[in-house]
Design brief:
By secondary structure, this protein is of the alpha/beta class. It has twelve helices and 18 strands. Helix 3 links the parallel strand 7 and strand 8. The longest helix is centred in the last third of the chain and has 15 residues. Bound molecules: N-carbamoyl-L-aspartate and zinc ion.
Length: 432
């Protein structure tokens, strides 16, 4: 029994959460006392978050890179109990072998559950992948580890095929025919001009015509206009903390090179206002932990991407404390909707849901220091920002973070949407 305060019908109220032997929420009610209970007092109990967009670098990363083990501990410390791991590892997850290689790295090593996306670029592999993967990721433009992307003319057939397979499909929406090459980029502002808003809005414009039967989700939307078109079309999408909180008005720092680029301050502010109004359904980190030395290369040669799985909730909880963001808006975007999108019984304080819960003490602030975060990359775009990290994190009712320290075991599993056809990935054998 966990007692504390939680959002119930939009208001923070004292509650008691009873957890059954299977680690599910049994009931949620007013404090009645009696029985063994852990009382967190004024602290707030939230459902743990789901980060549906991360890039750990296994398999194929260099020895110093993020692994499934390190990345999932960072997730646990940040209050994230499920990550959606993207397929642009080496080799990319496109077929039987690459799928098996990556999924075998999860068992006994992951601190939280992992949903593995596959890349649908090899048509004859799609049926196999659809029985294992948790979702598909489609890149419309080249990015880290992905050079070849489908031509616009190939997309209608791809959407039809992916509609039949029913899994969620996340799309990196930038139209590379709208990229502008005007000299060597040396700053985030140059990068913004090279991969302009027009490229993103063109790609989003095309996607709004995709078949309604496709479970389509657009990754890292950077503008309020893009968000509005997707909302009007009824298409799921995410924004990242870096696009919500950082603009391209920073010096020539390759660490802040990311795809899509950081936008101008007015564009960032408009996206943040849309998020605050609850008009951005999902927040996700696009955690891309490039090593520090790669980010010290000249801007044009440095890789794109910023880390973020461990800071996703902490930086936004700090905005809640500052009165700039409603806790209910954050809880819906970080916990409820991404889990629902991925077909998982978590993310809400609901009887029957997994008791994946975090405890947040809003008086316990800290300053983010890249060197003390768990990722081996050792840096963060939010260096020095005030943040609030969960003091406790429970997975299936078992404490995995205590006093802000990881105390769990690597028993995370590969999961896939409950609505997906076929069997859960964990019970399939190689012969299937
Ligand atoms: C990502 C990475 O490094 O894996 N980089 C990025 O800039 N976001 C890939 C991606 O999502 O485009
Ligand atoms: Zn990404």
């Amino acid at each position: 029994m966990l007692a504390g305060r939680a959002l119930v019908r939009g208001r923070l109220q004292p509650v008691e959460i009873a957890i059954d032997d299977a680690g599910r929420i049994r009931s949620l009610g007013k404090i009645v006392g009696g029985g063994p209970r852990h009382d967190v007092g004024e602290s707030v109990i939230l459902p743990a978050a789901t980060d549906l967009h991360v890039h750990f670098r296994e398999p194929g990363g260099p020895p110093e890179a993020e692994t499934i083990a390190s990345g999932t501990i960072g997730a646990a410390l940040g209050g994230v109990s499920l990550v959606g791991e993207m397929p642009n590892t080496r080799p990319p997850v496109t077929d039987v072998e690459s799928w098996q290689e990556k999924s075998s790295l999860v068992a006994g090593r992951a601190a939280v559950d992992v949903l593995l996306y596959a890349s649908p670029v090899v048509p004859r592999e799609l049926a196999f992948l659809a029985r294992r993967a948790g979702g598909f990721k489609v890149y419309l433009s080249p990015t880290t580890g992905i050079e070849n992307v489908p031509a616009a003319s190939e997309l209608p057939a791809l959407w039809d095929r992916l509609s039949e397979l029913r899994l969620p499909v996340s799309v990196h929406a930038e139209d590379p025919t709208r990229f502008v090459s005007a000299g060597r980029p040396t700053s985030p502002a140059d990068w913004d001009r090279a991969r302009p808003v027009a490229a993103e809005e063109a790609a989003i414009g095309e996607l709004t015509d995709a078949p309604k039967s496709l479970r389509l989700h657009v990754a890292h939307v950077t503008t309020a206009a893009g968000a509005r078109s997707l909302r009007n079309a009824g298409i799921s999408f995410e924004a990242t903390p870096h696009h919500l909180l950082l603009s391209d008005k920073v010096g020539a720092d390759a660490r802040l090179k990311v795809n899509p680029p950081l936008r101008t301050e007015p564009q960032r502010e408009a996206l943040w206002e849309a998020f605050r109004r609850g008009e951005v359904p999902i927040v996700a980190s696009d955690h891309a932990p490039h090593p520090r030395d790669a980010k010290e290369l000249p801007f044009d040669r440095a890789p794109s991407g910023v880390p973020g799985v461990e800071t996703l909730l902490p930086v936004l909880l700090s905005r809640v404390r500052a009165g700039e963001l409603d806790l209910g808006v954050l809880q819906a975007a970080a916990c409820d909707r991404p889990a629902r999108w991925l077909g998982q019984p978590l993310g809400r304080l609901l009887p029957g849901h997994r008791a994946n819960l975090i405890v947040v003490d809003f008086t316990n602030r800290f300053r983010i220091d890249g060197r003390t975060l768990h990722s081996p990359c050792g840096w963060t775009p939010f260096e020095g920002w005030e943040a609030i990290r969960p003091q406790e994190h429970y997975r299936d009712g078992v404490r995995v973070v205590e006093g802000g320290e990881y105390v769990g075991r690597p028993d995370g599993r590969v999961v896939r949407p409950e609505y997906a056809s076929g069997e859960p990935a964990a019970t399939l054998t190689d012969a299937d």
